[in-house]
């Protein structure tokens, strides 16, 4: 008589993933135990799949709204196990507004030029240019 084994986790999983918006996300829920094993995925504690025999979750083109805490629950006739959570962050870079900024200052006075608003994650690195040449920061700039 074959011994029945409750589901158990196999291998580790990344606690955090950063994926570029529009790219594919694949999460894997590795488990052992007596077959058939079934899997269900949640996002921020809400079910996003029904029970299935598919141990992978695939999102073909990630959107910003797909960011959050993903978790897999696996089960068989002997019990259920909740998989470790994976936080998925979606990296994106919006577009600059096309509005031109003009400043008039008296010679010798400071001119403050602000970066235009830009929706992005993570925070972007900004490089300034003057007349097509990169500005190297110094004590004046």
TrEMBL record:
The keyword GTP-binding does not apply. Pfam families: Ig_3. Residues 7-89 form the Ig-like domain. The keyword Transit peptide does not apply. Keywords: Immunoglobulin domain. Signal peptide: none annotated. InterPro entries: Ig-like_dom (IPR007110), Ig-like_dom_sf (IPR036179), Ig-like_fold (IPR013783), Ig_sub (IPR003599), Ig_sub2 (IPR003598). This is Ig-like domain-containing protein.
């Amino acid at each position: 008589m074959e011994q029945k084994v409750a589901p158990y986790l196999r291998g580790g999983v990344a606690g955090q993933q950063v994926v570029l918006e529009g790219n594919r996300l694949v999460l894997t829920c590795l488990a052992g135990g007596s077959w058939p094993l079934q899997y269900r995925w949640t996002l921020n504690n809400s079910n996003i799949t029904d029970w299935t025999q598919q141990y992978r979750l695939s999102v073909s083109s990630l959107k910003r709204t797909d960011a959050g805490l993903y978790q897999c629950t696996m089960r068989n006739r002997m019990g259920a196990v909740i998989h470790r959570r994976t936080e998925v962050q979606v990296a994106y870079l919006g577009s600059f507004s096309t509005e031109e900024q003009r400043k008039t200052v008296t010679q010798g006075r400071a001119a403050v030029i602000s970066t235009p608003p830009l929706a992005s994650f993570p925070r972007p690195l900004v490089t300034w240019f003057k007349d097509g040449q990169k500005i190297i920061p110094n004590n004046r700039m």
